[in-house]
TrEMBL record:
Pfam families the UniProt entry points to: TetR_N
Alphabetized PANTHER family for the sequence: HTH-TYPE TRANSCRIPTIONAL REGULATOR RUTR, REGULATORY PROTEIN
GO molecular function: DNA binding
Keywords: DNA-binding
Organism field: Rhizobium loti (Mesorhizobium loti)
Protein name: TetR family transcriptional regulator
InterPro entries per the UniProt record, alphabetical: Homeodomain-like_sf, HTH-type_TetR-like_transc_reg, HTH_TetR
UniProt keyword DNA-binding, yes or no: yes
Length: 189
């Protein structure tokens, strides 16, 4: 009879994978991931059948964490600007608190190893946010702007904001305010 798997070991593997994917990309070796987690590579494969399964589970874990952060106290009845501001602030706060998760997500988001099923599942938690972006595009956003492009602009401005916060944490609120001002002025008339 197989021993039950330990959630603590699973989390150690995911934490190690986060750090190594953030720094080395999706090519990080499973042996190194296991070693950094304090486990053998064989133990890693007791938890994840393949490296692709590990990367897809890591993607979903980080997306879930980010989704929970963005939607905490989400003001669904507020104006588009207020909802956008809420998402922006929570994204910046999450990204500043979890720089390795943010960097790992960047790597995973462009990886061909992440399945379409994982992408759909990971994006499902962002339904309210996607509707808000669609609404802002309809209500005066740049003509002909797609959801993907608007999301890309948001991410690029957020990444720039987070890079400047990392350089000078004392200016965090200033950079957060200014970054949102740039985003909002581009999304509204």
């Amino acid at each position: 009879m197989a021993r039950p798997l330990s959630e603590e070991k699973r989390q150690a593997i995911l934490a190690s994978a986060t750090e190594l994917v953030a720094t080395l990309g999706t090519g990080a070796a499973t042996a190194k991931i296991a070693r950094e987690a304090g486990l053998s590579e064989g133990t890693l494969f007791n938890y994840f059948a393949s490296k692709d399964e590990l990367l897809n589970q890591l993607y979903l874990e980080i997306k879930t964490d980010l989704g929970n952060a963005l939607l905490t106290s989400y003001p669904s009845q507020a104006s588009v600007r207020e909802r956008s501001r809420h998402v922006w602030n929570n994204f910046i706060d999450w990204g500043a608190k979890h720089p390795m998760k943010r960097k790992a997500m960047r790597q995973l988001s462009v990886s061909e190893r992440i399945t379409e099923q994982s992408r759909r599942q990971g994006n499902a938690a962002f339904g309210d946010i996607n509707r808000m972006i669609e609404e802002s595009l309809v209500d005066g956003g740049p003509k002909g702007c797609s959801m993907a492009f608007a999301g890309g602009i948001f991410e690029a401005l957020a990444e720039t904001t987070l890079e400047f916060i990392a350089r000078d944490p004392r200016q965090r609120e200033h950079y957060k305010e200014t970054g949102f001002a740039f985003f909002w002025s581009g999304m509204s008339k």
